[in-house]
Amino acid sequence: MADDLVVARGLVVAYGRRSAQLFGSRKRVPVLHGVGLRVGRGETVGIVGESGSGKTTLGRALLGLVEPTAGTVTFDGADITAIDEKGRRPLRRRMQMIFQDPMSSLNPRHTIGRILTEPLVLHGFATSRKAALSLVHGVLDRVGLSRNTVERYSFELSGGQRQRVGIARAVVLKPDFVLADEIVSGLDVSTQAQVLRLLKELTSEMHLALAFISHDLSVVRSICQRVVVMREGRVVEEGPCERVFTAPADDYTRMLIDAIPLPTVDPGWLTRGAAAEAAVPG
Amino acid sequence: MIAPRLVIEALSAISLRAAGAPILRRVSLTVDTGEVHGLVGESGAGKSTIAKAILGIVPAQVKITSGRIVFEGRDLLALPATELRAVLGRDITLVPQDPSTALNPSRRIDAQMTDGLRLKRGLSMREARLRARTLLAEVQIRDPERVLSSYPHQLSGGMRQRVLIAAAFALEPKLVIADEPTTALDVTVQKQILRLIRALQERHGTSVLFVSHDLGVVAQICDRVSVLYMGKVVEQGRTADILQNPRHPYTQALLAANPRYDRPDTGLEPTPPEVVAALRAEIAAFDAGGSVGEARDG
């Protein structure tokens, strides 16, 4: 068992405003109802579920980007829900995020070079732009982008190249933990394969802990050691991928797995499980 | 031998924006009566352009340069606008990709579903509403009356897609173009929607041209499939044959890149550089007027 790096206990998160709204009630809508999760050092954990399951909210809470109503998140032993912004800052470098859509997470007015060097200077990894640039060249080499990418803007790159920049930005600060939220969902299958391979290599080289949020269970199976299945703000099942995918203990997990169409003709697939799904609102 | 319902013959198109770069390269395929034909490929392969060409809605920067789209004996590309309008939306309909943008947000579902029935089939408002209700029941909507009087935002994504499927099949079309109809949906909802499309299609003997980037989806719903790469059909045949025994290196590469939960040690294979080089050469040779690679077509 890997030793724990990120641990969430009893997380409750509710959205909604306290202030009076024009329509509707003032009630806060709970999105997570007491969620627990562990990510060990160097471990890749998949967080799966359908839309509205709370997987993105859970990810944000792990990074301290949303404030839980109840429960705690500890990072390397420190309770990040209890410390203030100033105390959290040194942890920021060690916890990074790769976003779903790099087009909207990379500033279109900044060159890729600026996007990658700025955090290095801010976090004291480099004392000059020149020193930062040489670190950036190193990371670009590693993620398979040419060095002259530093002169380009995000909109000049392909989707796969942009996602490599997203990965480069996350790993250039040598973090311990990376959260990846649906990072391959907009990519073609061949590009997806390249991005996932790269991520897999990096997590093992850098001994990175990775929380990998995805709606695609086949992708999760291919890169994660453990998986957490969420439904409506609760964890319904958790365990090693090998066990969960071959012998799911929860009915919902089984239904999710059965709903994945595999690229092998299976004449019974379409009609199988029709009765079980009728219980789930479309 | 009955003639296929749709015959696309050597359809070529170029982009007017990208200096006349080819978008479709002599695409030929047929969709038989009662068949679901898959159009599969990655982004930029030309899948959507083919769908749009059939529906007569190619964007202004795309120019169809040659070829024919023969539907029940008539070339849609040569049909006068008035005749085309009579065919589209009645004999040929569309299930769009994104159920959240395809419906008018300010009109109730009943108004949107009855338009076609009244205008294209000449039903009265009452008859049309009755028919819409039957159709919603057919796509397993448990409370058709409530859905009919709802606005799109009051329905879930899966529910909206059901409404759009009902609308597409409402006029008893002969050909339905399904353009990535489940891409925006969760897997469990996707499965229900695929099941519905297949059931309606079988019940009514409808032909479906099913556009998808997902080989898994294609495997479960398509009888035959055309694999596209850069606007060119690289392989064509029965779905089971193509997936079990892909002959073209591109199809093989697509399958090798595809992760699958039941075979965790396979998948995520990057396309070998020699395959990429061969594909580029195939396209270049084709553009130069040769027919290298044509022999590999199924």
Radius of gyration of chain B: 20 Å
Form type of chain B: globular
Strand order of the largest sheet of chain A: 6-7-8-3-9-10
Ends apart, CA distance between termini of chain B: 20 Å
Overall geometry of chain A:
globular
Helicity level of chain B? 25-40%
| The CATH architecture of chain A | 3-Layer(aba) Sandwich
Structural class of chain B: alpha/beta
Strand order of the largest sheet of chain B: 6-7-8-3-9-10
Name of the level-1 CATH class of the largest domain in chain B: Alpha Beta
The name of the CATH topology of chain A is Rossmann fold
Largest sheet of chain A: 6 strands, mixed
| CATH homologous superfamily assignment of chain A | P-loop containing nucleotide triphosphate hydrolases
Low-confidence sequence ranges of chain B? 291-298
Number of domains of chain A: 1
What is the fold's blueprint, element by element?
The complex is a heterodimer of chains A (282) and B (298).
Chain A: E1 4-15, E2 29-40, E3 44-48, H1 55-62, E4 70-75, E5 78-79, H2 85-94, E6 95-98, H3 102-105, H4 112-122, H5 129-143, H6 159-171, E7 177-181, H7 189-205, E8 209-214, H8 217-223, E9 226-231, E10 234-240, H9 241-246, H10 251-258, H11 274-278
Parallel strand pairs in A: 3-8, 3-9, 6-7, 7-8
Antiparallel strand pairs in A: 1-2, 1-4, 4-5, 9-10
Helix pairs in contact in A: 4-5, 5-6, 6-7
Chain B: E1 6-15, E2 21-31, E3 36-40, H1 47-55, E4 62-71, E5 74-75, H2 81-87, E6 92-95, H3 109-121, H4 125-138, H5 144-148, H6 157-170, E7 175-179, H7 187-204, E8 207-212, H8 215-221, E9 224-229, E10 232-238, H9 239-244, H10 249-257, H11 273-287
Parallel strand pairs in B: 3-8, 3-9, 6-7, 7-8
Antiparallel strand pairs in B: 1-2, 1-4, 4-5, 9-10
Helix pairs in contact in B: 3-4, 3-6, 4-6, 6-7
